[in-house]
């Protein structure tokens, strides 16, 4: 009797899970369409190119950008956003659970005007700096950039906003800063954290596929005590992060040294399912938090 019930339970379980399948014909059509889009030119491009050499994103990529705390992930993201929205007029949306819209705005002005961020925050600007700031603010005013700032934001709200941005603003890149501060992870008990983390990463992958755009999530490397360059093994018990992501990129630089104006840093592409891995040299400017390619 028990065996019969078990069999019925298994049958019902399989009935509930309705995974789609594809024929060889459908798969080949998709492959041919992909190649044709690449062949026809930039307007049909499936890659989102950046000004950082060798750093580009497939349109359905889930990208993890990670670093030690305080290295500058948010500023790197804002430097990347600046390239896209100002140089290429590519629409981008940013979910920011920790940093206010006003602070993001000030950082963007500093990054693009080369005016010291502290001077912008304090309002201690000379006449030429005010004019420069106003000019940059005017460019940013017209830029296709959208910010959603909600502390302790849930995935449900993020998904709703992503779909809204995609449909109404036609965004081509969606970024979630400080991923570990999502409501589900903040409220998770220790024994369920890994499961919730896995589910969230998969949901973001599904969302990238659904919207046909790359999604970047930024996070701190958990419990990293070493001063060595980060690598995939630093995720330790959260290796599911590296398993679910299409790309894993580490931002690395030495800890701040007093007196430096600019500093060499690097992007470490540790995982890439659609291209090469390796290091990308970048430069960091301490007064503005700006990241550029080294030949800038």
UniProtKB/TrEMBL annotation:
Protein name, per record: DnaB-like helicase C terminal domain-containing protein
GO process terms (BP): DNA replication
Domain of life: Bacteria
Pfam families: DnaB_C
Residues that span the membrane, as ranges: none
Gene3D superfamilies in the record: P-loop containing nucleotide triphosphate hydrolases
Domain SF4 helicase: 41-296
Xref: PANTHER family: REPLICATIVE DNA HELICASE, REPLICATIVE DNA HELICASE DNAB
Keyword Hydrolase part of the UniProt annotation: yes
Matches recorded under SUPFAM superfamilies: P-loop containing nucleoside triphosphate hydrolases (SSF52540)
Recorded GO CC terms: cytosol
Keywords per UniProt: ATP-binding, Helicase, Hydrolase, Nucleotide-binding
UniProt GO molecular function: ATP binding; DNA helicase activity
